[in-house]
Amino acid sequence: MKDFYPPIEPYDSGLLDVGDGNEIYWETCGNPDGKPALFLHGGPGGGILPGFRRFFDPAAYRIVLFDQRNCGASRPSAADPGVSLARNTTAHLVADMERLREHLSVERWLVFGGSWGSTLALSYAQAYPGRVTELVLRGVYLVRPSDETWTFTPTGAARLFPAEWAAFRDAIPAAEHCDLVAAYGRRIADPDPALHLPAARAWMGWEFSANTLLPVDPPELDDAAILLFARITHHYISNGGFLPKEGLLAGVDRIRHIPAVIVNGRYDMKTPPDAAWDLHQAWPEAEFHVVEDAGHGGSEPGTRHHLIDATDRFRF
Fold it and tell me: Keyword Methyltransferase: yes or no (predicted)?
């Protein structure tokens, strides 16, 4: 069973001006002369964590990570309710990735993304197929209407996590239960902390539930981190991920030639494996793994094994 590589620290980092008054934080670690690999965090709005560096052999890879617009150490932060998210869309993030590639003088790179990161990886690869050497995708999220039905109505994941769903639902008055996403949006967008902070906490409480097959403690986040995460996540969910109407499966022919590995937990309650299966049906050339003893988390042993096995095989 493959395990994480040892912890490492960045050898370089900075803030890149990507226009629209935005700067994205980036860092590089591993081997400066190694094969370039880009890690895309989830959320959206989750930001990068030190553990994300450990999916790659540091002797073989030049590992690039960045905080997507308005989260993590990128500026301005969505933790400020006055910061507009109008210039934070999938197209903007894809353009940021390409600008970062040029800034770092990378010709082509492996792209690795889990959950929302898989959405962004597919979007980038379909926009710039000549810049991607391989794709490693975990917990595939296609942002289809059926995905939001699963997550935000009583007929989906709520049936498996009734207590967590009740806490999420009941943070909103019963009269607004017909559209919880919209009801949360009104509160999260309100400038009054007395309204937006409780809503953000409840929203993220549901977001963090059921991430792994076996329960784990949710991350400890301060109010600012909770608000920015909730604002950005809601912004994307309420806008269909800012994806083309035809969806990401329609663009598979543009990336069919790219070697790819798709990994999904059998008991993934956030991104159930049907989306990964549908992607594989559209793209049978991609290697496909369903991990029988895993949920959504990328660090669960079986999922971790397949992801690191993929980066190990692609390192040369």
Answer: no
